[in-house]
Amino acid sequence: MTADLLTVAQVMDRLQVSKHTVYHLIRTRRLRSVRIGRCRRIPATALAAYLHELSGEVTGHGR
């Protein structure tokens, strides 16, 4: 089950972006996340959906 929820640091590593950028994506609702106590976790499916959205933007088939 833990592989299904990623930490902010894991998302930073996978996207090669800063912590600020990950939290900005969460705040602007481009990247879905959940809170567990005081911890923020990103479902792996949410990261996959965000990457799919990005690939649509790159190819011009996005919104």
TrEMBL record:
SUPFAM superfamilies: Putative DNA-binding domain (SSF46955)
Domain of life of the organism encoding this protein: Bacteria
InterPro entries: DNA-bd_dom_put_sf, HTH_17, SinI_DNA-bd
Residue ranges annotated for the Helix-turn-helix domain, each copy included: 5-53
Pfam families cross-referenced by the UniProt entry: HTH_17
MF term (GO), any: DNA binding
Protein name, as recorded: DNA binding domain-containing protein, excisionase family
